[in-house]
Design goal:
It comes from Metabacillus niabensis. Pfam families: Mntp. Probably functions as a manganese efflux pump. This protein has one domain. About 80% of the residues lie in helices and about 0% in strands. It contains six helices and no strands. Helix 1 runs antiparallel to helix 4, helix 1 crosses helix 6 and helix 2 runs parallel beside helix 4. The longest helix has 30 residues.
């Protein structure tokens, strides 16, 4: 394999990782609009990075065994989860209660990370069918999605202080809209 081929493959994987990580950035931007500590932002980014490693890895393994028919199902599930998370944040912003139903902590963080990484499962299916280099692919996906999540969360945290009490409703609207986009992209 020539150096040019390796560089082209690496460039392609980075572009794919950026495309996959943009949903984590967008959703991180929305989640950053709720009050989060820096420690929480760190853990959220790492968790999403890990999910962006595990989900395409599982997809690649299954993709090598099966066809890519599961890709549509994974995208629909991800869209549905984002709509639910977004709606919950919107309703919680108008509620008198201080604590939202789902927060990016514990099981809420798992649901959040799963919702933004389901599309990487479907990409993993495709890459598995074409025989991409597994370790390199998932490492690039995980690192880039983690960094993009941190950027989104930090920007959201900064904007949250500017718009005050409306920030959670805005964040929920972003998640909701992104979920709709995933569902109706077919």
């Amino acid at each position: 394999m020539s150096l040019e081929t390796v560089i082209n493959e690496l460039f392609t994987l980075i572009i794919m990782a950026l495309a996959l990580g943009m949903d984590a950035f967008s959703v991180g931007l929305g989640m950053g609009l709720i009050r989060l500590r820096m420690k929480q932002i760190f853990y959220i980014g790492v968790t999403i990075g890990v999910f962006h490693i595990v989900m395409p890895l599982v997809g690649m393994v299954i993709g090598r065994l099966l066809s890519d028919t599961f890709g549509t199902i994974a995208t629909l599930l991800g869209g549905g989860l984002l709509i639910l998370l977004g709606a919950q944040m919107i309703f919680a912003s108008f509620s008198k209660e201080e604590k939202p139903l789902i927060t990016p902590v514990g099981m809420g963080l798992i649901v959040f990370a799963l919702s933004v990484s389901l599309d990487s499962f479907s990409v993993g299916l495709s890459l598995g069918i074409y025989g991409a280099k597994t370790i390199l692919t998932v490492a690039i996906f995980g690192i880039i999605s983690m960094i993009l999540t941190w950027f989104g969360l930090l920007i959201g945290k900064r904007v949250q202080s500017w718009i005050g009490s409306y920030s959670e409703a805005l964040g929920g609207s972003i998640l909701f809209a992104f979920g709709i986009k995933l569902l109706f992209s077919f």
